[in-house]
Amino acid sequence: MNQPVELEIEITGLTLTAQVWGEADRPAILAIHGWLDNAQSFAPLAARLPEYRLIALELPGHGHSGHWPAGMYYHFVDCARVVLEAMDALGLATVRLVGHSLGGAVAALVAGAYPERIAKLVFIDAFGTLVDAPEHSPQSLRNHVQQWGDLKAKSMPVYPDTRKAAVARVVVGDLDFDNALLLTERGTRQVPGGVTWRTDPRWRVHSALRLTEAQCQAFLSAITAPVLYIQASKGLDFVRQGAELRRACVADLREVEIAGGHHVHMQNAAEVAGVIRGFLED
User: Rounded to whole angstroms, how far apart are CA atoms 122 and 280?
Assistant: First the structure.
């Protein structure tokens, strides 16, 4: 596999990073990773889509991207502005947008708010956003404040090396060792005694507020680009349940189920790449 080019992107108040595969004159795909992942989650796909320039953007607090200053917290809604600023900085007036998990939720917001800037949209084990019922909002805010306070007493785990960190990632997720190692090699940093995660721990704090189902559907209904939903056969249950409620909101929707778990684009990259290629070329 060709090594990616490392890219730094300046946005308001922060430096983002991205990994880029493919020549500058090729059609661009902008890919947004999932929660606690990084750009390397798209390396297996990039190797199988050589006819494209795949730009894997790292969201704030993930991978090698900068962290927000002390006192701020992360809300996925804010990532929509981040992606749009990154598109501007990269000179991408319109884009083929691919989002996995959290990246899919962000992509739904971007494509709904700025439909004219999205040529085609791919959800990978994602379909819209996490939602909550309005009556749960007071408890959500309470949980957020409690977890924010608890951060002060927590310390990041330290592993002897990246391989041990990869083993820990396998234990808590659906990845095999090799794919977990892809993520941990980029997603860890050296500290005394070994390595720890680069991801900002504030990403683990419960959202103060989530969108309602009606708000999520409003964003999906505003999307004008053709949408491909890649459903993982062993993906997240809430994604599948959300799709049942939301698929009628999308004007031009194509769906494919592919064998694999939540990280199906890493586990079954050849099939996922083939489906994406067919969709983009149609």
Answer: 9
Does residue 107 lie within any of the structural domains? yes
Query: How many domains, the chain?
Result: 1
Give the model confidence (pLDDT) of 104-135 as tens digits.
Answer: 999 999 999 999 999 999 999 999 999 999 99
Question: With 60 as the cut, is the pLDDT of residue 1 above it?
Answer: no
Average pLDDT, the chain: 97
Q: What is the DSSP string of 215-264?
A: HHHHHHHT--S-EEEEEETT--HHHHHHHHHHGGG-SSEEEEEESS-TTH
Query: What is the tens place of the pLDDT at every residue in 130-180?
Result: 999 999 999 999 999 999 999 989 999 999 999 999 999 999 989 999 999
154 in any annotated domain: no
The C-alpha atoms of residue 225 and residue 104 are separated, in whole angstroms, by 14
